[in-house]
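Have a close read of the entry that follows and walk me through the local backbone shapes. See right below:
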Amino acid sequence: MLVLGIETSCDETGIALYDTAHGLLSHTLFSQIDMHREYGGVVPELASRDHIRRVLPLIEQALQAAQRKLQQVDAIAYTQGPGLAGALLVGASIGAALGFALNIPALGIHHLEGHLLSPLLSDPVPEFPFVALLVSGGHTQLMQVEGIGCYKLLGETVDDAAGEAFDKTAKLLGLGYPGGAALSKLARQGRPRIFKLPRPMLHSGDLNFSFSGLKTAVLTLLNKQEITEQTRADIALAFQDAVVEVLTEKSLAALSQTGLSQLVVAGGVGANEHLRQNLNLKATRHGATVFYPSLEFCTDNGAMIAFAGALRLQADGLTKQQSTSSFNVKTRWDLETLES
């Protein structure tokens, strides 16, 4: 079964072809970072318009790279939510239109389910059940994953997501957009233990997170210092250390609470080198194993959507899915409401 995946939830247009017999055949991606950098963040209207320009050429590019024709596609998987309404509508409308025109299923996929399952595209592959740490610009959650569509929320952020905190702190430090990667790069020049920032909710007794206070702590620290390039690097490292420690300790607590020994990390922040090193070290001591997607699949991409769609179609049966010209998007969508 050949599945075409379409991802347009925010500021990256991702297209991929996944074959259930041969694996990932091709994937293409266009990032809008350069366009949005001028505004210091994503402008939804501009994002939507750019998706319209990019989707069809990228589909052609993915088909050519995979040496396949559109008529050979057996199903379409598109991101239905959560995300920006206008951006989601681009992918959903094109996915539904192609499904209707080709008389094949067009399946809406939960963006976070795509991220959650993306480590299964890599080697080694985790086996169900496992704990998943979804950590990105918009989401920080711990999930217990029993199988496709069987997700139990263990804890989530009560305010800013980790990636959002990275971006806001980067702005305070005078770094450009996107801030998370720039802050991590600056932190490499920082000196350990020069500054100590709070670890929010580290000892809260639950698996929830809070990162908005860290931004305030950084602002307070900046107001007390004579700011030099070294000071900025030291603060960046202190901030990164605080976030990484909280994410690591909460993840290990989730493993202990569930009795599981596999941790899957997905989302853009999962590419952070310091987080990976710390999780690997602590998990080994804990008797656990950590699985990550390839770096190219940490951010939004079409491969994870095509793959999630293929798994769902395999589970449900291709013939059970009906082609239809109707579609809708869900800007907010609870992952726990998905069905297996």
